[in-house]
Amino acid sequence: MANAPPKTWTIGSLVKWATDDFRARGIENPRLDAELIVAHALGIDRMRVILDAERPLDERELSTLRDLVKRRRAYEPIAYLRGEREFYGLRFRVDKRVLVPRPDTETLVDVALARTARVSLSMRMLDLCTGSGCVAIAIARQRPTSAVFATDVSPDAIAVARENALRLGAYNVAFEEADLFAAKMIQGVRFDVVTANPPYIASGEIETLQPDVRDHEPRLALDGGADGLDLVRRIVAEAPEHLAPGGALAMEVGAGEAAATVELFEARGFREIRVDRDIARIERVVSGLV
Predict the structure, then answer these.
(1) Helix (H, G, I), strand (E, B) or coil at 120
(2) What whole-number distance in Å separates Cα of residue 283 and Cα of residue 245?
(3) pLDDT, tens digit, 9 for 90 and up, residues 240-262
(4) Which residues contact 102 (CB under 8 A, 6 or more apart)?
(5) Could you tell me if residue 86 is inside a domain?
(6) pLDDT tens digits along 45-63
(7) Which residues pair with 193 in a beta bridge?
(8) By the 8 A CB rule, do 11 and 38 touch?
(9) What count of other Cβ atoms lies within 10 Å of the Cβ of residue 222?
């Protein structure tokens, strides 16, 4: 922006300039990103960005926009720039400490709710690798009379999840920093459902990811080991010891990993195993009952 010829910048001209710049850098959805950045910087919605296209920008606004455009040029995710991401109709605070919630993961919420319809008023749930807390909190809001527990090995992620729970009024969720089932708060508890969105990218594929993900989102939440299934194996192996009779394990997996995950479920004795597809029709969630 500093190299642009002197002019009066308006909302519209800034959006066009940023769109062209992002497109030249190979950024997906350049126009959408430009509009979201401008809307966030000015504290307005995207419709107002369009309607007020001729409004001049003052130097304070331009300074804020310069910083945001530079960060997006470096492929920092839009969700981190805005500090939030919508998931299951709720706005979650997110930053570099946690993965950005994806629409695909809403499938995991749907499956968990469907698998526990019989105990909807008194459900006990455990969410592993909770990250921003999006799955645990979304389900807790849908089932306010249930007891929801969530763990993550990252203390930073737990801090973000707790903040989100307080902001979103999910007072029936308890969080603990722990490695999967090792949390003290869950010892002796049997759950109606265990959910998990573990790291499932094969280590050798990390460098092939989009720079938004590869260079900015926490590696701990991405790397699933040599074949992407390191934590998937552990969760499937350990979950039955923590599930009530008839309880369900529901787990998000990477594209192409559903078949191998189903085999793990079968070997561990799960029944009524099914695979659900996400909005892109990719086999995304594997679930089964004990």
Answers:
(1) coil
(2) 26
(3) 999 999 999 999 999 999 999 99
(4) none
(5) no
(6) 999 999 999 999 999 999 9
(7) 125, 248
(8) yes
(9) 18
* Nearest-10 crossing angle of helices 59-73, 11-24: 10
Task: Note whether 210 and 265 are within 8 A (CB).
Answer: no
Q: What are residue 252's DSSP bridge partners?
A: 285
Residues for the chain: how many in total? Answer: 290
Q: Is 24 helix (H, G, I), strand (E, B) or coil?
A: helix
Question: Read out DSSP for 212-233?
Answer: HHHTTS-GGGTB--TTS-HHHH
Same domain, 140 and 259: yes
Reduced to 3 states, what is the DSSP secondary structure of residue 174?
strand
**Is 107 in the same domain as 227?**
yes
Instruction: Specify the long-range contacts of residues 77-84, CB closer than 8 Å, at least 24 apart.
Output: 77/212, 77/213, 77/216, 77/217, 78/33, 78/36, 78/37, 80/216, 81/37, 81/40, 82/36, 82/37, 82/40
How many domains does the chain divide into?
Answer: 2
* E strands in 19-83: none
> At CA 276, angle to CA 168 and CA 111, rounded to 5?
35
DSSP 56: B
Which one, of 109, 157, 105, lies nearest residue 133 by Cα?
Answer: 157
* Average predicted confidence (pLDDT) for the chain: 96
Q: CATH number, domain at 135?
A: 3.40.50.150
Whether 53 and 157 map to the same domain: the answer is: no
Whether 2 shows a pLDDT value over 50: the answer reads no
**220 and 178 together in one domain:** yes
- How far, in Å, CA of 143 to CA of 134, rounded? 14
Residue type, 37: I
Domain that holds residue 56: 11-74
The Cα–Cα gap between 20 and 25 comes to 9
Residues 141 and 66 in one domain: no
Unique residue bearing structure tokens 């195993």: 273
